[in-house]
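[job 4417] fold queue: 2 targets
>>> target A
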Amino acid sequence: MSKTSFSSLPNPTSLVLGSVQWGLKYGRANTTGKPDLKSVMEILELVSSRTAAPVIIDTARAYGDAESVIGELFKLSPQLKKHFEIITKLSPLANLNPDTDPRSAVNVAAVNMAAVNMAEESLTISRQNLGLAHLPTVLLHRWAHRAMYGGAVWELLLQEVRNNRIGKLGVSVQSVQELKEALAETNVKHIQLPFNVLDGRWHADNSALELIESRSTNDVTFHVRSAFLQGVLLSSPSVWPNVTEVNTVQITQQLDQTVRELGRLDRADLCIAYVRSFPWVGGVVIGMETPKQCEDNLRYFAKSPLTTNERELVRARLNCCDEALLNPALWK
């Protein structure tokens, strides 16, 4: 198979392998479930055979046994391991109570210490599962954890960077406000945010867009997730969440019309070409359950992104800011 280097394309936006499907049955449009080890190995082998540069795998402690799957495959094929770089996310710390009575210093201190212990355990398990003593990039799964627990969790991560056990720190954000706060933190070097052809939230706030554009050319890497909105953008209206005042039939028709007008292969090609057309987007996280999906996505990434005029056509036609549609956490 011939190798295609993304760096040779007009916009060298990287394919980032999303791994949540490897550890959980994830995604509203996921009909195949969690893939077996053989299928994930085939995906990794396909990517390594088609790309010249190292490819990033995005994973997390919260993604079921995804880290273990990755580590197991790297043990089976040490040569394959050299072709990939890992980004993982700290545990969401879901078992901790953030509403501890602030009047009780003893209780607050106990919760803060419990958070640090849980964060340390999360890092230890990630290293064991992935077979990595040094974690290249670690993200907070929740931006709120930067300030919570007296800032102790963030200080732990900073200490891990100083001890060369973590390469760089970042965060997964959910909103424009979280993005602005994260960009004010000088130690944040990587930001992951949801973004797709419908998502106009990031451009509705000019100050946020200016921050993104200025920092992406300086010292922060931006990766986008949810390019397919959990597969909804590729599906029939019956799969879409039921959101009041959102005409899913009309949106799918507009998507298909735009695919035809711009000469794209299909909706997936349009969705990827759109997010790749923004210079600040340094990587697109795409989850895959099957080798066939991997083949398709490699073909999409080998194509050129949208031109500026094509991108603006899509924005004018499709962008919305309806949080109820754009945030899967709010879906019923």
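>>> target B
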Amino acid sequence: MPSAIALVAFAFGVHDLTPGRTAPWIHGLLIAAVAVVALAVASMAATLAPDARRRTLAIGVASVALLAPPSGYVQLGLVVAGAIVGRFFLGDVRRDASARAHDAPSLEKPVRGIDTRVALASGITFAILIVGLPIAERFVNVGPFVAFARFFEVGGLVFGGGHVVLPLLQAQVVTPGWVPDANFLAGYGAAQAVPGPLFTFAAYLGAAMQRGPVHGIGGAAICLAAIFLPSFLMLAAVLPFWDRIRRNAAAGAALLGVNAAVVGLLLAALYSPVWVTAVRSTGDVALVLAALLALAVWRAPPWTVVLGCAVVTGTFAH
């Protein structure tokens, strides 16, 4: 909520701040995003793709994601492909990890609190909405319903979250003209300076729409609820069975492949749209390297790096 509230407040002023172009200081926020995402990719790769096979899978997924048009179904297909590769080619990695975990003391507690009936209802609800909303949208041309359907689809088809969602959101709101491209980039840059998950960017988009189906605080609430709801439904559907899934050798190997695929999707997002929208000159590259130095070596808080990049570009813009 703090992130969403801050971004909604920013949305009310962004039209005046960027009338048709990206302000220099907002360009600095985008440059900071390159460093933030690059560090996230490196950290996730070290944890989720630490060996040659998983790194190969991640790079393969990134290559396909960059060549294919931005689509949630493409991302979903790549995640499924990662699961298949993991199931058949990462079984020995899973066994080694399980052996090490068996030797170590367990600190995990059994998952409790969600009844299996609730889980089943959540899974059915998610399946009905992800299939039914795009169909219903063809017949129900009501603004709030259209916005809810579009953002629910994005939230339901994106795996890995974070910056992986940006190409889909851009296709949903910029292409039809709901949000101007400059304002989209301004909000994306501002999202780097607030706490919380990047999915709260949906609140900004809902509030900032000028010709879209919703706008203002109501639009922010609809888009924010729609993009987060699929995650809540899927989590509730899986949680009671998670221990059994985690202990199943085949499912565990598939999850290793899924995690590596998510690293690949984030790597693709690092280039497009993060790098291509932010880096325009050698000076921008130098500022990215300085931001990476501050984050990775000096362990500076991300918000200070974001603010510093904004000050630099705002001060030295030509």
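[job 4417] complete. Note on B: DSSP finds 15 helices and no strands in the chain.
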